[in-house]
Structures are given as C-alpha cells and as structure tokens.
Design brief:
This protein is α/β, with parallel strands linked by helices. The chain has an 8-stranded parallel beta sheet with strand order 3-4-5-6-7-8-9-10. Strands 1-2 form a two-stranded antiparallel sheet. Strand 9, helix 7 and strand 10 form a beta-alpha-beta unit. Helix 3 runs parallel beside helix 4 and helix 8 crosses helix 9. The radius of gyration is 17 Å and the shape is globular. The N terminus is likely disordered.
Length: 273
Amino acid sequence: MNKSPSSFDEGLFICNEFIMLVDTHAHLYSKEFDKDIDEVITRARDSGLSHILLPNIDVESISQLNKLVNRDDVFFKRMMGLHPCSIKEDFKDQLSYIKNELISRDCIAVGEIGIDLYWDKTFQVQQEDAFLEQCQWSIDYNLPIVIHSRESTDYIIQLIKTNFNSQLRGVFHCFVGGQKQAHEIIELGFYLGVGGVVTFKNSDLRNQLINVPLNRIVAETDSPYLAPVPYRGKRNESSYITTVVDELSKIYSLPIEKVSEITTKNALQLFNL
C-alpha cells in the first residue's frame, strides 16, 4: 500500500512512482483561493507535495493562514512575519501582535520579512527597522528567516553582514539575481528560493544558476503570484511546483527525481521538517 505524502519516512523521497516535493513558499490562504481551495489542495497532494509552507503578510492575514494550518498541520506549516510592503506608520503595533502570534503556537520560520524598494520607498527606514527586529526574533527562537528582497538584495546582504554575520539562516525567496549575489547569499549560510521566474523566456535566471550548487536551492511557487510557463499570467498554485522542478532538471542536466530529492532534502533540513 502506498503511503500518503504526509506519512513518508524521513529521508525517503521516491516511493514507486511518487516523488516527494515541498512548496517552500505559497500564499494559499489569500482570497484568490476562496472559491476552490479544496480542489487546489487535492491537486497539490496529487502532484507529490508533502508540505506547503505558508509565509504570513501582516496582522490581517493571520486568521486565514491559521485556518489552513488547522485543517492539516502536517501538510501546512506556519511562518510568522510582517511583509515589507505591509509596513506603514503602525508597523510597531503590527510587529508586537505578530511576535505574540509567533510564540503562541508552532512556527517553522520568521517570514515573510525583508525590504522592498520596487513599489514604494516611503517607509524604507521603517522597513529596515522591522527587518532587523524580526531577524533578532529568528535568533531568539532559533528559527530560519524567509526574505523578500525585491530591488534590495545587495542592501539586505550588507545588513546581514553588518548586524548578524553567521548568526542567521534562511532563504532569499524568489531569487532572481546574478551569480555574484547567489554566492554571497550562500556564503552567508542561506538558500536560494527558486520559482516560476526560472521558466520565463525573458529571464536570465537559468544561466545564472548554472554554477550555483543545487544543494543550496529550494523550490517554491509564491502562489498565487508568478505562475510558471505555460501558466504565466494565470493564478499560480502549489501543484505547479512540478514545472519549476522540471526546469531545474534541465538546468542541472539531472533527472527530475534527483532534483526533487535534493531540493526536498534542502527544504526539510532548513525548516526542520
């Protein structure tokens, strides 16, 4: 009898034709999934997913995130953090609330945190303050961090080197940078989160990853955003993780099963699953 994804023995990644996968970053609690979340979950399980990791956004997103975790706290795993795009005048109050939520029940990471200099730089100082505070949480509670670094990767790398060198672990979510940045991130002890962007025809990411070791990469979808080709422009979902893994197998000239095994092992180790 085949085992379900949630009951796999640790270290076993392939059982008959089943490949075990982890979506390390998905917002399945967002309103885009309100009408068909049951079908989305079924497709995710059928695609071989054993875990879906849920990064928080702000105070308002906590309730919906917790509802998914309450459905199945083996399949869904909680993170708690304040997203940089949610940082406004009240960010200290939000941080206080989110910290209480972080320590009130199991969390696998502090996230999604970081700095976003693409949309709006009005609260850049506050974003930095919030990022540094949440990094300290990860040290205090021995948790990895999940970093959002849109147009701010070098900035965040320098902040970590200056304030927390060798004290943090985690992942730079949705990595789209170059080899130099990739190697700096790895030297800090972090992983690279790779998602649908790697399949985009106008993306140079596949060329940048060639010399990046696969044992420092985790697979993600960032659902409902950044759907991979051939779904680009549509709502993303966790079952599409197989498309990301397939593209990685082409980049590294390895069988899909091997890429699945390595990226899943990376995720299990990083997030202590």
